Amino acid sequence: MSAADSTASALWFPAYVALGSNLEQPLVQIERAFTALAQLPRSRLIARSRLYKTQPLGPQDQPEFINAAAGLLTALSPRELLVELKRLERELGRAAPIVRWGPRVIDLDLLVHADARISEDDLTLPHRGLPQRNFVLYPLRDLAPELLVPGHGRVSQLAARVGGAGLALLAGVP
């Protein structure tokens, strides 16, 4: 069986990734991340959200973030996808933050992988912050408003519950 045959026969799952940056030209960093996501093995980038300017979650003495979300179809397991996302972060210049929720060149968080529910030290699905974070929910709502987040509800309902305070849609940006 050729590699193409094995890819064609693999099971494909929807997965969603949050993107964020507030250092070194954040718009450029988000575009670089979308390009990198499109090149993931055994995966296809099928949708990208609009871009949002957001207030930082952690220390407020840092630049505003640019946030977005990506929709993928992937034959990677949740663990394999997480490993690939961490690899991309390193390749795109992410350094370990000095302060929790501090400034960063790029942040790629696996939000949802099909209906997986995982609770491990380094992998929690759905992402534990997803139901409370508007800077994640609003971009995700652009892609999949009716997505059922296992154990939490539909993205559109979660977004309505948290509201849009501190978010600004970037106009004129694809």
Protein architecture, described:
With 174 residues, the protein is α+β, with helices and mostly antiparallel strands. It has one domain: 7,8-Dihydro-6-hydroxymethylpterin-pyrophosphokinase HPPK (Alpha-Beta Plaits, 2-Layer Sandwich). Helices cover 29% and strands 26% of the residues. Strand 8 and strand 9 form a beta hairpin. Helix 4 packs antiparallel against helix 5.
What is the structure about, briefly put?
This protein is α+β, with helices and mostly antiparallel strands and 174 residues long. Helices cover 29% and strands 26% of the residues. It has helices at residues 3-9, 26-37, 78-91, 134-143, 155-162, and strands at residues 13-21, 43-48, 52-54, 65-74, 107-113, 118-119, 124-125, 148-149, 153-154, 167-169.
Mean pLDDT: 90
- Rounded to the nearest angstrom, the distance between the terminal CA atoms is 40 Å
Our Rg estimate from Cα atoms comes to 16 Å
What low-confidence regions span 5 or more consecutive residues with pLDDT below 50? 1-5
Q: Beta fraction of the residues?
A: 25-35%
Please trace the helix and strand order, writing H or E for each element. Answer: HEHEEEHEEEHEEHE
Q: CATH-wise, what's the superfamily?
A: 7,8-Dihydro-6-hydroxymethylpterin-pyrophosphokinase HPPK
Total number of strands: 10
Architecture, according to CATH?
2-Layer Sandwich
CATH topology category name? Alpha-Beta Plaits
Can you summarize the main beta sheet? 6 strands, antiparallel
Question: Which structural class is indicated by helix and strand composition?
Answer: alpha+beta
Number of domains: 1
Q: How many alpha or pi helices?
A: 5
The residue fraction in helices comes out at 25-40%
CA-based shape: globular
Q: What is the CATH first-level class name?
A: Alpha Beta
